[in-house]
Design brief:
This protein is an all-alpha fold. The protein has helices at residues 2-16, 24-33, 39-51, 54-57, 63-70, 75-91, 98-103, 112-123, 129-140, 146-162, 165-194, 199-216. It has twelve helices and no strands. The protein has three domains: 1-107, no CATH class; 110-163; 165-216. Helix 2 runs antiparallel to helix 3 (39-51), helix 3 crosses helix 6 and helix 11 packs antiparallel against helix 12.
């Protein structure tokens, strides 16, 4: 693993020799080189590369191609970096400020995988503000690793779902009713077009569809 890491850094350094020092493209490579210690900087840079389409100016058709060929990062990692950085910038901007990233040591900066879990926790309707605060504390204050946070988040979601059986049942019922409505509406349209049923029966189905629509709303 160490040998692979050394080779990756050497490849990045070789690319840097052919790019103008101080240019934004050079800076992105510098962030990639420091990736393990400063993913926030790389996330910020990649977000700009994606948003402003810099990769096209540099001769690459897609962001994936640029990330893979120039800085040696796979598509899945790029997407997690972009999601994690954008989430922090939007929801927890204090953690992407230059003051925090410059003063914090690599050990206190959570991994992008952990931040991606925090993003998932934020979007889980079954979790409340206290649950989110708990996961956030584990990541930023307690310094728990990705595997531990993932395990705790999974357990928390399962616990909350068990406490809300009525809500889960309501959602299941609503999903089934929507499927029934969609299927019935499609068959009704086909039967009407092909004149497969008497007009009186088609009117009855119209009434039933209206009642189901009311139930859904």
């Amino acid at each position: 693993m160490q040998d692979y890491k050394k080779r990756s850094i050497a490849q990045i350094e070789e690319k840097m020799t052919n790019i103008e020092k101080g240019s934004f493209r050079y800076q992105v490579l510098e962030y990639a080189k420091q990736f393990k210690a400063s993913w926030v900087g790389l996330g910020r840079a990649l977000y700009s590369v994606w948003k402003d389409k810099y990769y096209k100016e540099w001769g690459f058709v897609t962001l994936d191609a640029y990330a893979s060929k120039e800085i040696g990062i796979r598509k899945n990692t790029v997407m997690k970096l972009l999601r994690s950085y954008y989430f922090l910038e939007k929801e927890e901007p204090q953690y992407v400020s230059s003051d925090f990233t410059l003063s914090a040591s690599p050990a206190t900066i959570p991994s992008y995988e952990s931040v991606d879990l925090l993003r998932l926790a934020k979007n889980k309707k079954v979790l409340d503000k206290d649950d989110y605060a708990y996961i956030k504390k584990e990541i930023f204050e307690d310094g728990k690793d990705y595997a531990t946070v993932k395990k705790d988040l999974t357990a928390l979601i399962r616990q909350r779902q068990e406490l809300m059986p009525e809500e889960a049942q309501r959602k299941k019922r609503q999903a089934l009713v929507r499927r029934l409505y969609g299927t019935l509406k499609s068959l009704h349209k086909e039967a009407k077009l092909l004149k497969l049923l008497p007009a009186s029966l088609l009117e009855d189905i119209d009434g039933l569809l209206l009642r189901i629509e009311t139930e859904l709303s």
